[in-house]
Amino acid sequence: MKTGKLIKNLSYSVVANGTNTLVSLILVLFVPKILGVKEYSYWQLYLFYASYVGFFHFGWADGVYLKFGGKKYEELDKGYFHSQFWLLTIFEIVLAAVFAGCTILFSEDSNREMVLLAVALCCVLQIPRTFLQYLLQTTNRIVDYARNYLLEKIVHALLVIGFLIAGVRSFQILIGADLFARGLTLVLLSRECKDIVKGKMLDWAGGIREAWDNVSIGIKLMIANIAGQLLVGIVRFAIENHWSVEVFGRVSLTITASNLLLAFISAVSIVIYPMLKNMDENHYVEIYVKMRNILMIFVLGLLIIYYPARVILSWWLPKYAESLRYMALLFPMCVFESKLTLLISTYLKALRKEKEFMIINWISVAITLVATGISVYVLDNLTLAIAMLPVLMGIRCCIGESLLAKTLRFSLWKDMTAECVLAGGFILLSWNIESWLSTVLYLCMYIIYVIWKRDFIKVMIQEVKNRIQNR
Q1: pLDDT score of 423
Q2: pLDDT reported for residue 6
Q3: For this UniProt entry, which segments traverse the membrane (predicted)?
Q4: Other C-beta atoms lying within 10 Å of the C-beta of residue 419
Q5: Is residue 32 domain-shared with residue 152, that is, in the same domain?
């Protein structure tokens, strides 16, 4: 991939995901401030359930993503993708109809029924859109993907803010705003890929065979991804089930605030996969080590803002002040999840190690199920349930990176140990010292880490200077 195109793709992707981070920040600050705790909690419940609808293609879209990674859009067999798109869309409509019917028959809570019916509609809008988004990503049409993604987030934010200003205090209307934004971007994506969406399917039987092949290829990656998402999802579901939707809403706010950075980090991972597929594997280790060091120096440094952020949010959202204390436990998740999302997962996909990655994730899920069952249903301990999340994510991240290091034959155990020490030190300091002293002490730890990395920092600064001078 040419450097200019890489920079352009990265810039568009960063702008789109940076805007998403900004939008999420605005919603975190103002929606819980204006809505009541119960209304906000049901809105969070919808967003929580909706975050899982993307897995109901059962690896179909992931298979396409893996099979055609690195191809140019112009080289694709449009008839093939036309059949796959519409078979997937029909399948999701049937699945959503069955789910909606079961919801109407068995749901006893009208608010929960509304949430689940909205999730069924979300499934129909989201998954065909995901298929087209994956197609743009895997063929390196990152600019088109980013433009569409950016529009969705802006439309959603404007609608939510507009409704709140107009005096709307109903979570149902906010859900409607989300569905409208998803539907609008599906229509616009269909125009971007009109040569695939429009047309005539000639071979239904052949299309079904190819669909099965795509599912068989993509299911391992999808299961690996859903397993990763389930680490937090299992705990959130147990909290909502064991305590109340209000407790769920308060904890969800804390998780959302702690994970704002991850949406921004994912911007780069979208660009890296097609780049790796077009790169000689001999350069994988060099690129990985550089990106890893830059990421860790940046993310570990961001932990410094925890206490100021908590003080400001507690003042702004006094109803949630008690639950915001859990940010001390959840903030370090960004250290492990950013590395896993940006680098480890992307590299393992490029090396076709989806099966091994899936096994790692599902072992983590099994441990999470047991730990959640004990902490929530046996010990009735909310703090313990939340505290185990960064521990489990850290273990999963270290195992995944060890697999990658073994595959590419290099060692990073010193770096992994240092990062775990900093993350663990941050949790102990921030949880036990609720003052600016915790920030000062962690800053001292971080400065020691930066001094340890000073040679790498000097090399990178010199490399940047050389590139600027040679332009």
Answers
A1: 95
A2: 57
A3: 12-31, 43-65, 85-107, 114-136, 156-181, 217-239, 251-273, 294-317, 329-348, 360-379, 435-452
A4: 24
A5: yes
Q: Is residue 257 exposed (0-12), middle (13-18) or buried (19+ Cβ within 10 Å)? A: buried
Q: Tell me: do 184 and 46 sit in the same domain.
A: yes
469 within a domain of the structure (yes/no)? no
Q: Note whether 131 and 62 are within 8 A (CB).
A: no
> Of 175, 194, 223, which residue constitutes the final position of a domain?
223
Same domain, 201 and 288: no
Q: What is the dihedral of CA 402, 405, 409, 413, to 10 degrees?
A: -70
Distance separating alpha carbons of residues 255 and 260, to the nearest angstrom: 9
Question: CA dist 308 to 102, 160, 320, Å?
Answer: 46, 27, 16
Digit-coded pLDDT (tens) for 57-72: 788 877 877 777 667 7
Query: Which of these, 94, 145, 90, 131, lies nearest to 214 by C-alpha position?
Result: 131
On whether residue 266 sits in a domain, the answer given is no
AA letter at 392: L
Residues 38 and 120 in one domain: yes
CA 76 to chain centre: 28
Residue-wise burial string across 228-240, b where 16 or more C-beta atoms lie within 10 A, e elsewhere = bebbbbbbbbbbb
Please indicate, yes or no, if residue 232 is contained in any of the structural domains. Answer: no
Res 415: pLDDT: 92
202 lies in the same domain as 290 = no
Cα distances (angstroms) measured from residue 364 to each of 159, 206, 229, 230, 404: 38, 38, 11, 9, 17
Rounded CA-CA distance 328/325 in Å is 6
Calpha distance 444→446 (Å, rounded): 5
Q: Looking at the structure, tell me whether residues 283 and 219 fall in a common domain.
A: no
User: Domain limits at 315?
Assistant: 279-463
Q: In one letter, which amino acid is 268?
A: V
Residue 264 resides in a domain = no
The amino acid that residue 443 corresponds to is L
Q: What is the pLDDT of residues 148-177, one digit of tens each?
A: 888 888 898 899 889 988 888 888 999 999
Those residues of the chain that have pLDDT short of 50 are 1
DSSP annotation string for 261-294:
HHHHHHHHHHHHHHHHHTS-GGGHHHHHHHHHHH
Last residue of a domain, one of 181, 205, 223: 223
pLDDT for 304 equals 92
* Residues 298 and 167 placed together within one structural domain of the fold: no
Residue with tokens 């067999």: 77
CA dist., res. 323 & res. 112, Å (int): 23
